[in-house]
Amino acid sequence: MNPLTLELINFRAIPYANIDLNDVTMAAICGRNGAGKSSGFTMAPRFALFGDVIEGVSMDDLVRRGTQEMAVTFTFEHQGSNYRAIRTRSLKGNGKSTLEFQQQIGTRWESKSAEKIKDTEAVIRNLLNLDDETFTASSMIMQGKANEFTSKSAGKRKEILQQILGLNIYDRLQEAARQKAAGLHLDIEEAKDKLAGLDERLKLKASKAELLESLNQETGAMKAFILSKENDLRQQEEKIRELQNKAEKAAELNKQINLISKEIAPFDIEKEGLVAKLGRAEKILSKESEILANTDEFYQVKEQITALEARWPEQERLSTELGHTGVSITNIKNEIVPLDHRIRNVQQLLQSRELFLAKAAEYTAATLQQKELEQLAERWDSIEKEILDVRANYNAEQTRINTTKSLLESEIRMLESKTSMLIDSNCIDDTKAACLFLSDAQDAKQVLIRKHEALNNIDLSKLTTLNKQITSLTEKQQEIGYDFAAHRALKVRIEELRPMAEEANQMQAKEELLVSLLEQSSRLNSQIEELTLKQINTQSELDTLREALAPLPALRRRLDILQPWANLKDQIGAAREAKQSSADRISAIDLELERKEESKEAIEEERALLLMETQGFDNALSELPIIQRELQQLRDRQHVLAEQIGGLKTELAALEKDEQDRLQLADELEPKAKKWSRFQTLIRAFGRDGIPALIIENAVPQLEHIANEILGKMSKGKHYIRFETQRELKSRDGVQETLDIMIGDWTSERPYETFSGGEQLRIDYAIRFALAELLAQRAGSKVEWLTIDEGLGSQDAEHRGLVLESIKAVADRFKKVLVITHIEEAQAVFEQQIFFENTDAGINVKVA
């Protein structure tokens, strides 16, 4: 697997970048912290291939702040074909992700995506034969995670190594063999169960034949019982029908009786109403003289009320007018209170006229002085801007000199570490050292002299010139004599005097305002006197009118008492007519009621006779279900016998077939058992103690060889690595599969975990480089690039040089080696560099 291009849109801090890696072999990734180096070369490929795999960072956090859409397109070559993974994330709505995986066929891209994202990720993992953990552990040394492989448990290390070696294919082969064996085992067990079941069922064949003969005899006797019971049922049903007809006729006569009773009820109700109407008419006629007297008094009282109510609007008018007058007086008084307050304020202000005029003169003088100080301030600020510009140039020059000095000092330290090897070589004349390693140290010794000269000859003249300019401008600024504190105090004093000066300019207007306010106050007091006199007169008229209207409530109450008597006057004539008509109608109703009662008594006698004849109906009706139930029980038994006979015939036919099936199952069972035994052998061979264990045992020496070659360069041959793949069990006999890391020197061996941090880091690098190279040498899961993220910061200058030399030593074993670092001396080692530059438009990525 070899990366070709990487396109990022709104990914973390990067608004847009299109990085072409086709011509890159070994390069340093450079740029400020936060520019997106790690995001672009470690997070982005993992995100594109495997999705949400970055611990502590959600997919939404990968979208650049302030934007809604993010996309990563990662193009790579694998096993002779080009592929690309395009993954997007949108924050709109509830959030949405997409993943498209394509293969280049000629000049076009053909989709290899599945319907769901997780299924497409499975397609990618199957193609690469890697998951994210193994991919990261073998091809990336992340920032602060150089021990990504060594820090794992011994068991986890072995799992990662198995994936790197492509041994997970044996897991799939073992699972396939297990499934085949499980299917055969299931078939065999099912066949055994069937044979046992068939044998058990065949034992019942003779008894079922005897039972069938017995049931056939019982069925013949049951038919005779059913015919007899059916005859009894027909006779009982005929008897019930005769009694039913008489009961229905009695019910019809009962309806006629009820109908006559309903016809009598309206006559009773009508008679009751007529009797009540007759009583009311007689009562009205008995009080005729009293009704006429009260009616005359009603009309007299009504005329008095009408006369008094005609004067009622006048009372309401006077009340309203009196209220309006009171409101007007109150409103005018409310206007006088703030008016008097304003008059007093203006009078007090005019008494301080001389003081305001003095402050106005002081304000004018201070304003003139302020203009002079502002002119001096402009000259001061102009020189201050020149000083700031010169100071910025001074700081830039100082930074350039410090950077140059730091670079030279870093190169000198690296060269001194190389030349120190001449002293340790034990050569009599180190200038004649012939080996390639010491020859490189000789070259470094010559370069070291030139670097010391360059360090001592750094030009400081521009710094001196800029410092003199700053001194000259500062003296010129002091000659102006501008006092910032006095200027600020004068501004404060002007703001204090401004309100008093404005008041002084308005004194003439204040005098005119006072005269106007006094006239307005006099006019309002006159209005109050007029309204008060009007209020007294209106109140007097209202009191007189109220006295005249005082009897009105008593007259209204009397009118209400007399109203019912006036209403009865109109009913006297109607009462005379109602008395005569009610008496006539009552006589007619009595005759009709007598006739209907006679008819009702005749029908009741006929109904009583029918009820006597149907007294045996309930007994006959209760016997019918008993006969029906007995008949149904006989028929149910006949049905059960038929079902049992049919079931027995079917069972006997099935038993005949079972005898044939048993012979066939016995013939098929033996070859399946032999085939199942073969699959058990394959399961053991594909297990971790089988073929995969042999492959790991053969691969571990290769991994040790590569790791020791690299570690020897970094430790000057002091340390070597040995892997233990098995460990004796403490609790019982036997061994446990493991992958322990043992580190040895000239004296002894001890576990990796007992070494110091710096020593562990070099061991980590050696093993990680070895894993990456081992992966590159294996077919099927070939990752041909190595990424190292900020892995040099914890090393001193000497060991940093050794690590860089080790990186260069393994570079020819990979198609691409990318090193992310902010250390300038490390960046200078690489001929190719990829720059992440901060611009106003975002992050600009340039390959040089």
From TrEMBL:
SUPFAM superfamilies: P-loop containing nucleoside triphosphate hydrolases. InterPro entries: P-loop_NTPase. Keywords: Coiled coil. The keyword Transferase does not apply. Gene3D superfamilies: P-loop containing nucleotide triphosphate hydrolases. Residues 174-263, 366-393, 500-548, 586-637 form a coiled coil. Belongs to the SMC family. SbcC subfamily. PANTHER family: ABC TRANSPORTER ABCH.3. Heterodimer of SbcC and SbcD. This is Nuclease SbcCD subunit C. It comes from Paenibacillus chondroitinus.
